[in-house]
Specification:
The protein is built from eight helices and 19 strands. It is α+β, with helices and mostly antiparallel strands. It folds into three domains: about 140 residues, Probable tRNA modification gtpase trme, domain 1 (Gyrase A, domain 2), CATH 3.30.1360; about 80 residues, Alpha-Beta Plaits (2-Layer Sandwich); about 80 residues, Beta Barrel (Elongation Factor Tu (Ef-tu), domain 3), CATH 2.40.30. α2 packs across α7. The relative contact order is 0.15.
Length: about 350
């Protein structure tokens, strides 16, 4: 099992560890609710170094990305990031990723931890045009400083003006004594904040600096459990749960990252065009329980007569709303906000409603 550069730090903080995507990762420290609320109300710090990190460079870098992703890389400015997905030929999603543009010949791509080998093989296979690609997944660490106090904390240890970094923008700067840190206004919590990319050798120093500086703000280390509850409250998709090789980005509500212009020539472009025009059979929706319970992944969604409408893909007890919430696919005619549905929990049909996403506002 692989370990991130921060593994000993997690053990020192008393983290409960689990295996995830081949890595020994912190599930929780003080507890998922405590960590969740710290991120919502002040600040939390996550180790997400298990994510995949690829460089795509050279004269044909943009051409390769334009060929394999659904969004429009040509619209990116230098210092800007873009959420997008890699489609397959059957209308499914190979992975959802973030692309960072340094300049017209240099891009940084972050992929899901469970898909590193799969994505690398996919990109390599489609690189028939001579782009330079490099897998740096085991050389670079990622720290996610998230929460409403994140900027205030980080600003104390860098001379860069963080206020000038807009959403999905980034700079390469010095943080404390650590040089060449990518500071990106991105995250997976909906609470605001930054993701910090550094070399593995600098990860511990960067973590300890942020924890020390953030102590006055009651910063907490946070694990994968809180990362999951936070993203569900925001309605963010998790690969392997809410999206996968068999789900269309149109079905998943990600049609906004599918750009059907002359600049793109990705797999399933024609199919996505038809889906955007004619609609889809199923849609990913927010689910809010009216009755007591938690809509867990795999639970069946039914109508008032017990007829199957779909399946829950993600669910939790919301620490903020203090009720069961989740996401799942239902037949499109039942996808309107406010529609009453039922989730089968322990052989009981628990009343629920289709909810607008996100479940909470930032």
């Amino acid at each position: 099992m692989k370990k991130t550069a921060l593994h000993n730090v997690h053990i020192k903080h008393g983290a409960k560890m689990i295996q995830f995507a081949g890595y020994d990762m912190p599930l929780e420290y003080a507890g998922v609710v405590s960590e969740h609320l710290a991120v919502r109300n002040s600040a939390g710090i996550f180790d997400v170094s298990h994510m995949g990190k690829f460089w795509i460079k050279g004269d044909y870098a943009a051409d390769l990305l334009q060929k394999i992703t659904t969004n429009d890389v040509l619209k990116l400015r230098e210092g800007q990031a873009q959420y997008t997905c890699i489609p397959n030929k059957e209308g499914g999603i190979v992975d959802d990723i973030i692309i960072y543009k340094y300049d017209k010949k240099k891009f940084f791509v972050v992929v899901n931890a469970s898909n590193i080998s799969k994505d690398w093989n996919w990109i390599t296979k489609h690189n028939t045009i001579g782009a330079e690609i490099e897998n740096s997944s085991e050389k670079i660490s990622i720290l996610a400083l998230q929460g409403p106090k994140a900027r205030e904390i980080l600003q104390q240890v860098t001379s860069s003006d963080l206020q000038s970094i807009g959403s999905f923008e980034f700079v390469t700067t010095k943080v404390g004594q650590v040089k060449d840190v990518i500071v990106s206004a991105t995250g997976y919590t909906g609470a605001g904040g930054f993701e910090l990319y550094c070399y593995d050798k600098d990860a511990v120093a960067l973590w300890e600096l942020i924890m020390k500086t953030g102590s006055a703000y009651n910063i907490q280390p946070a694990g994968l459990a809180a990362r999951d509850t936070l993203r569900i409250e925001m309605g963010y998709c998790l690969y392997g749960n809410d999206i996968d090789d068999s789900t269309s980005p149109i079905e998943a509500g990600l049609g906004w990252v599918v750009k059907l212009n002359e600049n793109n020539n990705f797999d399933s472009k024609e199919l996505f065009s038809v889906q955007k025009k004619n609609g889809v059979v199923q849609k990913l929706v927010g689910i809010e329980l009216i009755g007591r319970g938690i809509p867990r992944s795999g639970y069946v969604i039914v109508d008032e007569k017990g007829g199957k409408l779909g399946t829950v893909t993600s669910g939790t007890m919301s620490p903020v709303l203090k009720k069961g919430i989740g996401m799942g696919y239902v037949k499109s005619e039942y996808a309107d906000v406010g529609t009453i549905i039922f989730v089968q929990i322990r052989n009981k049909n628990i009343e629920a409603r289709i909810s607008k996403l996100p479940f909470i506002t930032k």
